Structures are given as C-alpha cells and as structure tokens.
Amino acid sequence: MSVHEREGRSEQGFAKPASTFLELFTPKLITILRERYGLSHFRSDLLAGLTVAIVALPLSMAIAIASGASPAQGLYTAIIGGFLVSALGGSRFQIGGPAGAFIVLVASTVQLHGMEGLFLATIMSGILLMLAGYLQLGSYIKFIPYPVTIGFTAGIAVIIFASQVKDLLGLTLSGPEPGALLEKLPVIWQALPTWDLPTVIVAFVTIAIIASLKIYRPHWPGMLFAIVITSIAVTILKLPLSTIGTAFGGIPNTLPMPSLPEVSFAKVGALLPVALSFTLLGSIESLLSAVVADGMTGRRHRSNCELVAQGVANIASGLFGGICVTGTIARTATNVRAGAHGPVAGILHSVFLLLFIVLAAPVASYIPLASLAGVLAIVAWNMIEKHAIALLLRASRGDAAVLMATLLLTIFRDLMEAIVVGFALGSVLFIHRMSKTTAVSTHRPWVEDDQPDKVDGSRLPYDESIASNPDVLIYRISGVLFFGAAASVGSVLDNISDSCKLLVVDFTEVPFIDSTGANTLEGLAHKGRQRELQVVFTGLPEELREKLRSYGISEPLVAFAGTIDEALQQHGASTV
C-alpha cells in the first residue's frame, strides 16, 4: 500500500481513493469545523482544555528548568507551540509543548551553544520537520522498532531522574553539575553529606501526594495539587528553600516579542547535528503520541500534516524564546480522557496557560524547586514502561539485545547514537527473522494429498515415473525472495544433479523479489543454459515477470508458465 493510500483512508479505517496533496495537509481543525462544530462540542473542548492546562502548567515549568531554561520559557513553549500544533496539526487530540524526552538534548545544547544556539537549533529543527512532512516521510518514521522506542525512553527517564537528585536532596555542589551521567555520579556522591532535610521532606511529600492521588483519586490533577499544597506549606512555615522566585526572579506576565537569533554559516553548521537530533526525536515522539490517541479514539491522524504543524510550532517557539515543541503522550491522553472533541481543546489549553501568565504569574514565584523536582521524578518513573521492558526481555534474545543496547547507549553515550544503533540492530534482527520464513521445498506432482484436478472431481493419477524421474526437478519457493534469503535459496538451487533436464521453480507463494533475489535467479538461469538445462518459472504474476525481465531474465534464457502442470505439459514431461 502506498503512502497516499494509507493516508487516504477515512478516520473510520475504510479505504477510499488516494488523497490529493491538499487533503493530506488539511489540518484536523478544518475537518472539525466542516463537521458543523456546535456549542456542545465547544463545552466538551472547554472542559478538556482546562483539564490539560492544569496538568501542563507544572510540567512545562519543571521540564524547562531541568532542560537548563527558565520556567517562563517552558510556558512560552506550551502556549505558542501548543496553540500551533492544535491549530495546524493532523491529529484531533494532539497536545503540543515541552516534553521530558528532550531534557537531555536541550540541556546539552544550552551547555555547549548557549541559549541563542538553542533558539537557532529549534528553528532549524522546525524547518527540517516541515521538509520531512512535505516530503511525506511521516509514514516511514513510524517504522522505528518497538524495543528501540522503549529503550531510549527508559534511558532518558534514568537521566532525567539523575538530573533531579540535586534538587530532590537539596545538595550543595562544589562546582557546576556535570551533564554526563558517569561524571555526574561521583560529584553527587561527594555532595551527599550536604543534603537538606526540609528540601527532602518537601520533595518526597510532593511525590507522595501525586502517587496517592493517582491511586485514590485518579481523575484529580495530582501534580497541581502537590505543587499548590507544598508551595503553601513552604510559604507559611517560611522554610529556607529555593523557589522559582529566588532562582529565576519569577515569571513575566506577558509574552515576549518574537526575535530572530543571530544566524551565520558557522553557527548553522555547528548546530546542524543538534537540529537533526531534535527533528528525529520530535518526529518519533509526536507520531507515537498521535498513534496513542488514534488507539484510544478509533480516529486516524495525518502523519505528514502533523510533522508540518510540529515544524511551524518549533519555528515559532524559537522566535518567541521557547524550547523544543513536540506532541506529548501524557497530556494528549489526558485530553482524550477529558472528553475532547477536537483540536479546539488544545487551542484552549494554550489560552488557559496564557491567562495564568497574565493573571497569576506572581503566584509562581512561591513554587519550590524541590516540588518541581518531585514532579519530574514522577514523570521519569512513568516514562519507564516496566511491563513492556519485562515482556521484551522474556520474548527473545534478539529483542532483549536491541532494548538493552539502546537503553545503555542512551544512558552512557548519546541519544542519537542509541537510536541509530538500536535501529540498525532491530533491522538486522528483522532481516534474520524474515530470512527464516523463506524456504525451498521439493514439489512432487499428483500425490494423493493434492486437490481434485478433473472437472468430474476425480483425482489425476499419481504418476510414479514423474515423481521419481531424475530428468525432472520441481522446486517451490515460499516467502519473500530478498537479499537476506537469497544465499540460502541459491545454495539449494545450486545442488541440482547433472542428469536433470527440466527444472521447474514455482513462485506461487512468493509475494516479492528484490534485486538480490533477481540476481540469484539470473545466475541460476545462466548455469542452466551452460548445462543445457531447461528452466521454467511458474506462478509469477505479471508484475514480478516484468521485474525479472528488467533484470535480463526472459525468454529464451528461461520459460514462463502459469502452473506447474502447464510447465510439465509444455515441455513433454506430463503423462496425463
């Protein structure tokens, strides 16, 4: 099925004619409005938008702080990016904003290139995302193997938690905190004697509130409750803890004016690998989130339209001083559960966050950093899909190897390296498994297990002379004849006795032949000619026949027949 055909399915999953370019990139907001969007739909979206905003408020600030940015930048990202993702995206329910998966990449970018470098890399990533969407690469990004996504997500979670240990325990470091985990752990260990009891209590009370509400009141916004309760407690008790106000001077009550960071060829070249990393991770995260929403609702998103929207959102976020924007799985799932009807809910979630900045920004100054560290500790724990990891470790050694390689490389090396290596290992594993499904078997005509061939229903007679005739050899190939299986198939076909005069190869159960498989068959045909062996291919549909002819496999080098019986009759081997 082509990309157009996949995208051309209706939201209910029924096939329809291939979509035009305009239809592929029509935002779901337009689709919703065409469906006679009414007041009842708006009420549903209003409630869902408020619910998501309550969840997104503490998360956006916490993720930004952990990324080396200010809490205000996290809110700018959720407001600007979230609005554009919902307004222009190809998913009804996608919620855009800062995501925990980007913390490691964003923090390292800020450390190496500064905040201006982060803005430029975000804008460049937006351009690349738009390009990927318009080139219709969205359907291929979803081919990342499942063990790879589970592995790098768990690895990111470990790094996020490690980055919050300092604020969870209130440690005083002798110098700047290293970014790499292996360098960070000795520094944290040396600073353990400086732990602060009030900070530890506030952090773990935050975690306890969130965990308890998830069990006993799962529909309540646990993170917001935890932030509000601990902030009030710290203020009333006058605990000497670092807060957003003391660390960042509070949050502005207006959005900044857009501005373009300094651009030069040298900076673009230096930031291109970073932008590519943002693009790849953003594509995977966003499309996974959209797929999750599809699974929860039975709808179908437009993947390439979604990538274009993510690109526009990242460009705008970089211009307004925000960080990377992507589709967020937890907030998108919350949006669906809250009863959202369409993208208006995501737009309203951004409006509510903007109202918070305008009306209640001074209140954010009282939020303890220990509380936000507790929120991120919960986020890191939820990112690790424990059940999926246990399942993959038990499933097979190959899946376990891909998972562990991706996980360990993410933690101790680099996220992009982990994804590339994991994808390569997953591809090799898939090729190996596919090669095992391709087999060559000897076919004996007219045995008793065959189906009736005559019009009156009687069976053709079993011809012992044909079944054991050394001059006639019949092989049946089943499975995909591709480069992973070509060698094993070729070795079987090469073991043909010199007395054989007619070789029939049946392709009825072969759905696809690649160039390596065609080259193997061409070699077989030329060997047959040298030995005066007549080679007949049967069961090939016209499409595969034309493909073989394009590789030089045609008459008189080989002969073609519809069935094995026809091949035997045409070459005088049939006794029927």
UniProtKB/TrEMBL annotation:
<feature type="transmembrane region" description="Helical">
    <location>
        <begin position="118"/>
        <end position="137"/>
    </location>
</feature>
<feature type="transmembrane region" description="Helical">
    <location>
        <begin position="46"/>
        <end position="66"/>
    </location>
</feature>
<protein>
    <submittedName>
        <fullName>C4-dicarboxylic acid transporter DauA</fullName>
    </submittedName>
</protein>
<dbReference type="InterPro" id="IPR036513">
    <property type="entry name" value="STAS_dom_sf"/>
</dbReference>
<feature type="transmembrane region" description="Helical">
    <location>
        <begin position="72"/>
        <end position="88"/>
    </location>
</feature>
<feature type="domain" description="STAS">
    <location>
        <begin position="462"/>
        <end position="571"/>
    </location>
</feature>
<feature type="transmembrane region" description="Helical">
    <location>
        <begin position="366"/>
        <end position="384"/>
    </location>
</feature>
<dbReference type="InterPro" id="IPR001902">
    <property type="entry name" value="SLC26A/SulP_fam"/>
</dbReference>
<feature type="transmembrane region" description="Helical">
    <location>
        <begin position="418"/>
        <end position="435"/>
    </location>
</feature>
<keyword id="KW-1133">Transmembrane helix</keyword>
<dbReference type="Pfam" id="PF01740">
    <property type="entry name" value="STAS"/>
</dbReference>
<feature type="transmembrane region" description="Helical">
    <location>
        <begin position="271"/>
        <end position="293"/>
    </location>
</feature>
<feature type="transmembrane region" description="Helical">
    <location>
        <begin position="340"/>
        <end position="360"/>
    </location>
</feature>
<dbReference type="InterPro" id="IPR011547">
    <property type="entry name" value="SLC26A/SulP_dom"/>
</dbReference>
<feature type="transmembrane region" description="Helical">
    <location>
        <begin position="144"/>
        <end position="165"/>
    </location>
</feature>
<keyword id="KW-0812">Transmembrane</keyword>
<keyword id="KW-0472">Membrane</keyword>
<feature type="transmembrane region" description="Helical">
    <location>
        <begin position="223"/>
        <end position="251"/>
    </location>
</feature>
<dbReference type="GO" id="GO:0016020">
    <property type="term" value="C:membrane"/>
</dbReference>
<dbReference type="Pfam" id="PF00916">
    <property type="entry name" value="Sulfate_transp"/>
</dbReference>
<feature type="transmembrane region" description="Helical">
    <location>
        <begin position="197"/>
        <end position="216"/>
    </location>
</feature>
<dbReference type="InterPro" id="IPR002645">
    <property type="entry name" value="STAS_dom"/>
</dbReference>
<dbReference type="GO" id="GO:0055085">
    <property type="term" value="P:transmembrane transport"/>
</dbReference>
